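User: Teach me something about this protein's shape.
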Amino acid sequence: MADTAKDKDVIDQEEVEVEEEEETTTTTTTTKKTSQWHKTRTTKTSATTKTTTLTTPAKLYGKDLSEYDDVDVESLLAQLSPEEITILAKEVDPDDNFLPPDQRNSYECTKEATGPLNRKQLIEHINKQAIETPDQPEFEPFVQGKVRGKKWVPPPRDARDIEAEEQIAIDMGEEYEHALNDATQEEIIDLAAILGFHSMMNQDQYHASLLNKGQPVGLGWDGITKSTQQKLFPMDPPNSTDVEESIKRVKDDDSKLIDLNLNNIKNISDEKLEQLFAALPQNEHLEVLSLTNVGLTDKTALLLAAAIEKSKTLRVLNVETNFISPPVIVKLVQALLKCHTIEEFRASNQRSAVLGNKIEMEITDLVEKNSSLLRLGLHLEFNDARHRVAAHLQRNIDRIRVKRLNQRK
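Assistant: First, the predicted structure itself:
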């Protein structure tokens, strides 16, 4: 028993020594990976893994890049010969958009110019050269009916798809089948148009079927589809309104001048527009003023805004397609608050296509304060402004309609 206990103590002592040896013994593996830029050393132990990264500077021609910082490039270029500078210029792309293309590319034509460019003669020379250049001879002569290479064979279709197509059958009854079998080509085209099968016909056949005009000749199932002849409409005659006479009638407050249309008259000077706007406050009969595409600028538009505030009878004002900036449009809309007679105002398609959120919100606030405006011609980008303006204009229209109904009663 004593020997057994002694042996057990010896075994336990040996196991403790083995464990101590395992804890104190480390296996060190050093992995060195060297490249042009980095060196990485990895050390592994039984408990932890430690990674150390050593970064080496980049080198050019055996020297670090930092050594080239103090080099004078101008002095190096001065030491080069003209031939060496030409070679260097061909190898370096300046990538400068301000240089012409013939100075940016590396190709330099050494031939002398044969004369000015003649595009027609150049095309004729290219076509002649293409025709006179012989075709490359074929290694194997062409034989009609002989297949060269591997012939393409379509893959076999799935048996289930074939069975599904065979099972598709529409039983329309003997009466309908007999009617379709005896139907003429025009009747089938009419039926396709009624059912909406637009891919089976062109526009002429479709409209002829709907209007019951008879099918066009030569446009059946086997006919050639041709484009429809374009309808030519005459150009609108130029605006023949006499600007000076119109300004005089506005100054004289002509009772017959109710609608003044100066659209598309591009030779109206700023002095004439100033005279027209100066005469508007004293006029008591003019109701519609159209100034579309007349070259209206911010300077004259501000004068128009001042004239609107004093107008007494103007109902419709159109200043579309001009050169009015968004802030001046706000001034025009603001002037509508003091003129309670204008019901329609249009000022879209100006120099600035987008008004911006701030301008649109200002216009929206001004429109909501206006109780007489019924129609507004402006492109508003933001949904909030569009919805608020539309809702307010609808309320103005409803209020006027209710007022008219009460007057009839």
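Now, about its shape. The CA atoms of residues 11 and 17 lie 10 Å apart. The first helix runs from residue 2 to 24. If you'd like, I can walk through any region in more detail.
User: That's plenty for now, thanks!
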